[in-house]
Design brief:
Organism: Novosphingobium malaysiense
Mean pLDDT: 97
Strand content: 15-25%
Family: Belongs to the radical SAM superfamily. 7-carboxy-7-deazaguanine synthase family.
CATH class of one domain: Alpha Beta
Helix content: 25-40%
Distance between the termini: 24 Å
CATH topology of one domain: TIM Barrel
CATH architecture of one domain: Alpha-Beta Barrel
Number of strands: 11
Subunit structure: Homodimer.
Keywords: 4Fe-4S, Iron, Iron-sulfur, Lyase, Magnesium, Metal-binding, Queuosine biosynthesis, S-adenosyl-L-methionine
Structural class: alpha/beta
GO molecular function, one term: 4 iron, 4 sulfur cluster binding
Largest sheet: 8 strands, mixed
């Protein structure tokens, strides 16, 4: 079974849209949003995947979500059929933290390959969990987003040295750092130097849930990227549809 987030109660968050971030930005994609996360970013825009009633981990909205309304479980084959019924030939598995459900994802991806052979599969991960051995060979791209100090997560939970080193050595992995202030860029630079992350695989993205905030932060971030050789990524879906589920 896979544990998924919902768009509305009882409706799993499986949908076709455009990839809004990272190296695949603008590409038609099918999205599957899983529930549960091992981190708690204070600015997380999908807190409904983890901050359920009784969870006191900090979040700037201080919202708590009813688990029954925001989470459901489906058989892996059912999820694969729902994905195969949508048009895009690219799948983005997001969360929450998808790699917490690695074994079930491997079963789903295998079933999907029988229904839609050759579908490109990306996983969006916070970089703290190793891919399940059965899942790893089925994935074409890992979008790794390590959480910086401004996320509010302790470094010993969010920045695990052996995992960061493994991702840096993995050619299928691209790094996407969420940045809110200029000091965050110094932290990115230190991580790049320490783990030898190639600049062509390093993206920075403004933190923000509105177009106004994204544009404000994008201006100085873009200048920095042009000087440093890093890649910049916007949040296209926010500009198109706002901070909404199922987009």
């Amino acid at each position: 079974m896979l544990t998924l987030a919902t768009t509305v109660p009882g409706d799993p968050e499986i949908f076709a849209s455009l990839q809004g971030e990272g190296p695949s930005i603008g590409r038609p994609s099918t999205f599957v949003r899983l529930s549960r996360c091992n981190l708690a970013c204070q600015w997380c825009d999908t807190a409904y995947t983890w901050r359920f009633e009784g969870d006191n981990r900090p979040h700037r909205d201080e919202a708590a979500f009813e688990r029954k309304s925001n989470q459901l479980s489906l058989e892996e084959a059912d999820v694969a059929e729902r994905i195969a019924a949508l048009a895009p030939d690219r799948l983005v598995i997001t969360g929450g933290e998808p790699l917490l459900q690695g074994a079930a994802l491997a079963r789903m991806a295998s079933a999907l390959n029988d229904l839609r052979p050759g579908m490109h599969i990306e996983i969006e991960t916070n970089g703290t969990v190793a891919p399940h051995p059965a899942l790893d060979p089925l994935i074409h791209q890992f979008n790794v987003s390590p959480k910086l100090a401004h996320s509010g997560n302790p470094a010993d939970l969010a920045l695990i040295p052996e995992r960061l080193a493994a991702w840096a050595a993995e050619p299928r992995a691209v790094f996407k750092f969420v940045v809110a202030q200029q000091a965050d860029l110094d932290e990115v630079h230190a991580l790049q130097d320490h783990y030898a992350i190639p600049s062509e695989r390093l993206f920075v993205m403004p933190e923000g849930r509105s177009s106004d905030v994204l544009r404000q932060r994008s201006a100085w971030m873009a200048d920095f990227c042009a000087q440093s050789g890093w890649r910049f990524t916007d949040r296209l879906h926010i500009h198109l549809w706002g901070d909404t589920r199922g987009t």
